[in-house]
Design brief:
The complex is a heterodimer of chains A (about 350) and B (about 325). Chain A has about 350 residues and is α/β, with parallel strands linked by helices. Helix content of chain A is about 30%, strand content about 20%. Chain A has 11 helices and 12 strands. Chain B is elongated. Chain B contains 10 helices and 2 strands. Classes of the chains: A alpha/beta (about 350), B mainly alpha (about 325). The interface between A and B is medium-sized, with 39 and 28 residues.
């Protein structure tokens, strides 16, 4: 069996108008390339506002247009062996993909469920939209889905309202809803950010288990590198709407190439080590309406040392080592390396976490 | 589906829960007043245009024979209040229904579609808002009157047609103006609702726009809709009496609670043979009925809003 990517994003750019003027648009995502293979977990890492969520939402055409606009690029989806561009689908066609082939879970489990319906009604709606089954049968599927995500007494829970459940339970319900139609790809947009740490671990464990059982791919959006280390096969580090480093989880953690990735790793607190203060990356994410010239990271970069090249030209994403890409003029080997499209089919063996 | 034995955790749907509350008493008052006003229509209608002036029965205080007293022309205040109630209530309720139907639809479409459609729809509302209210009602009244009158003469016996046509025109005109506030309120609510994560989640599992509006946004609007509808009913009743006072609304001899109260106020005091007579019954009865109805409506509205919202489960 050939290993073909399940989802392949090619040169995607999404823009929004700045408030005040209609002509001036800013790119939230600019020339994004990535691919996800079956059963693979790709983590997109980056600070708030770097375009992580926009990338995931674009996959299902969930960016409101207008004001948003897909400027360029294609999102290839492997629809039973036939590649199909998700961005070119009509609203009606993409609706058949949403929830059915590609499901999504969100950051806020507290508000992602409609407060006026019971859990059961909402899971049933998700099922009945895509499957021609009777209500009674759909109810069985819903019960099974709740059992699968580890909710005790699923029959009774189906008739409860979202406000009667805790945050962790609601995120479980969201996962049950997303997985009820057996999607092939799950977009998890910071699924554990709003939960406390013990529940976080449970939810991630659950996602890993369900992914193994169903052979599903996961696009995991997060800014928590601990979550990445434990769950991801491949990692894309995003900054200011583009990928600055891409590689397997081992390569990213053991030899980070981009100064931004190194900064992120350095700012992770280490247990048992005494810190006066946590390390930070100086400055903050640039406003998309006013990106610096050249490399967007140069005002915050510790490697730059007033190199005129950094302020003048935007470094392309090049394959520095085999299957490890970085976009920085100062990465050793960047000037000899080839500019290739990042594409990595690595899946980690079922083993202990990397870090 | 198994039923569980544990009585503490059994959750009934809040809508079905029955308990005696302020809202229930409000509903009872409304039903009783409404039923009395409408059931007695055949009798009250047959008496309303008594033109004779009866000096013997003019302005008698409430007694066993006339429990609410009589007015200047010797007509029974009881019957006039019943007929006035039927007119006031139908104007209030119909205006509220029109305002809910048009306003909710308008506001939902504008709010959910957004962009240019929203801008155009809301500018229409702004322009109508900008016109003086009375002018708008008069314009609608003039525009609608011939149409409704000719329809009424075709459908109804000649004796009833002019009265019914008058009331129908008035309620259409009031309803046609009062949906503006509703549209604005609903649009605002939809704007905030459509950015809620649960709407995005619903879109992400493949729900189409029509279904999102119907199934996900509308049920979340029930609270504000009910509150504004229960506010619209009394507002419409008051507007009707204001318009009647200006001579645009219900014309005498047809009564309404508002015009009865206005007449009663005018004839409250008069110099009688034994000093100053106070004809309190002319003012008191319509006011008591009006106040009772409005209070009952507000209690009912509050209660309905709570009952339809699962978060208020008790």
């Amino acid at each position: 069996m050939t290993d073909k990517p399940l989802l392949k994003i090619e040169d995607l750019a999404v823009s929004f108008p700045t408030s005040g003027s209609l002509d001036h648009r800013v790119r939230a995502v600019n020339g994004l390339n990535l691919s996800i293979y079956p059963r693979q977990t790709l983590a997109i890492v980056g600070e708030s506002g770097c375009g992580k969520s926009v990338s995931a939402l674009s996959t299902l055409q969930l960016i409101p247009t207008p004001p948003g606009r897909y400027d360029q690029g294609r999102i290839w989806w492997d629809a039973d062996g036939q590649p199909c561009d998700l961005l070119s689908l009509s609203e009606k066609e993409i609706r058949r993909v949403r929830g059915n082939q590609i499901a999504m879970i969100f950051q806020e489990p507290m508000t992602s469920l409609n407060p006026v319906y019971t859990i059961g009604e909402q899971i049933l709606e998700a099922i009945l939209i895509h499957q021609k089954t009777r209500r009674a049968q759909a109810r069985q599927i819903a019960t099974q889905a709740l059992t699968d995500v580890g909710i005790a007494d699923p029959h009774a829970r189906l008739d409860e309202y979202p406000h009667q459940l805790s945050g962790g339970m609601r995120q479980r319900v969201m996962i049950a809803m997303a997985l009820a139609c057996q999607p092939r790809l799950l977009l998890a947009d910071e699924p554990t950010t709003a939960l406390d740490v013990t529940i976080q671990a449970q939810i991630l464990e659950l996602l890993r288990k369900l992914q193994r059982e169903r052979g599903m791919s996961v696009l995991l959006i997060t800014h928590d590198l601990g979550v990445v280390a434990e769950n991801a096969d491949t990692v894309a580090v995003m900054y200011a709407g583009r990928i600055v480093e891409y590689g397997s989880v081992h390569d990213i953690f053991s030899q980070p190439l981009h100064p931004y990735t190194r900064g992120l790793l350095a700012s992770m607190p280490v247990l048992g080590k005494r810190h006066e203060r946590l390390t930070t990356i100086p400055g903050s994410v640039p406003n998309p309406a006013d990106f610096p010239s050249g490399c967007p990271f140069h005002p915050r970069c510790v490697d730059m040392k007033d190199d005129p090249k950094c302020t003048a030209d935007d470094p392309p994403l090049r394959e520095i080592h085999e299957k490890h890409w970085a976009a920085c003029w100062h990465t050793p080997g960047h000037n000899q390396a080839q500019t290739t499209t990042p594409d990595l089919s690595y899946r980690r063996p079922e083993a202990a976490p990397v870090v | 589906m198994t039923t569980r034995a544990d009585p503490v955790t059994i959750s009934l749907r809040p809508v079905m829960r029955l308990s005696f509350r302020a809202g229930t008493s409000g509903l009872i008052v409304l039903l009783v007043v409404g039923a009395l006003c409408f059931i007695t229509l055949p009798w009250s209608l047959s008496r309303y245009d008594l033109q004779r002036l009866d000096a013997d029965t003019s302005l008698t205080a409430p007694s066993l024979a006339e429990p609410m007293g009589t007015d200047l022309l010797g007509r029974s205040v009881l019957w006039r209040c019943m007929l006035g109630g039927a007119i006031s209530l139908s104007i209030g309720v119909c205006a509220a229904v029109i305002s809910v139907a048009v306003g909710v639809l308008w506001g939902m479409i504008a709010g959910y579609t957004g962009g240019r459609t929203d801008a155009i729809m809301m500018r229409v509302v702004d322009v109508l808002y900008g016109l003086p209210y009375v002018l708008l009602v008069v314009l609608l009244d003039i525009a609608l009157q011939p149409v409704i009158e000719s329809a009424a003469y075709r459908l109804l016996p000649d004796s009833l047609a002019p009265g019914i046509a008058q009331v129908a025109t008035l309620l259409l005109a009031i309803g046609g103006v009062s949906w503006l506030t509703m549209a604005r309120v609903i649009r605002g609510q939809v704007l905030s609702l459509r950015n809620q994560p649960f709407i995005e989640a619903a879109r992400a599992y493949g729900v189409g726009p029509g279904r999102i509006l119907r199934r996900h946004i509308l049920p979340n609007l029930v609270g504000p809709i009910i509150v504004y509808a229960t506010l619209t009913v009394p507002a419409a009743i008051l507007q009707e009496s204001f318009l009647s006072f200006l001579g645009i609304g219900v014309q005498p001899p047809l009564p309404s609670w508002g015009s009865l109260a206005a007449d009663g106020l005018g004839e409250l005091h008069a110099l009688g043979q034994t000093g100053i007579d106070v004809r309190w019954w002319l003012l008191a009865w319509p006011c008591i009925l009006l106040a009772m109805t409005l209070l009952a409506l507000n209690l009912l509205g509050d209660d309905l809003r709570d009952r339809l919202d699962p978060r208020h489960a008790r």
